[in-house]
């Protein structure tokens, strides 16, 4: 199975380094940012377009969406 190369923190763009630091400060593993640095335009789309629209737009409250995400994670065996 091929794995994406993870970009070290000191090689990230200033924007991605800030996101990396924010996630780390919040206790979230920043591997997604490190791997996403291989295609920064895709990472930008994910956080700024997709994620913002799906999780913070629409008619369903963000709190309900977050509860659903947690339930789905547990159902699929994704634990922190």
Describe what is shown at a glance:
This protein has 80 residues and is mainly alpha-helical. It is built from four helices and no strands.
Protein model, in words:
With 80 residues, the chain is mainly α. It has one domain (9-75). It has 4 helices and no strands. The mean pLDDT is 89.
Largest sheet: none
- Rg over CA atoms, rounded to whole Å, is 14 Å
Helix content: 55-70%
Strand content: under 5%
Mean pLDDT: 89
SSE order, as H and E? HHHH
Content-based structural category: mainly alpha
Spatial separation of the terminal alpha carbons: 23 Å
* Low-pLDDT segments: none
What is the β-strand count?
0
**How many separate helices?**
4
Can you tell me the overall shape? Answer: globular
Q: Can you tag this structure with a few keywords?
A:
80 residues; mainly alpha; 61% helix; 0% strand
Ordered list of secondary-structure elements with their pairings:
Elements: H1 14-25, H2 31-36, H3 40-56, H4 62-75
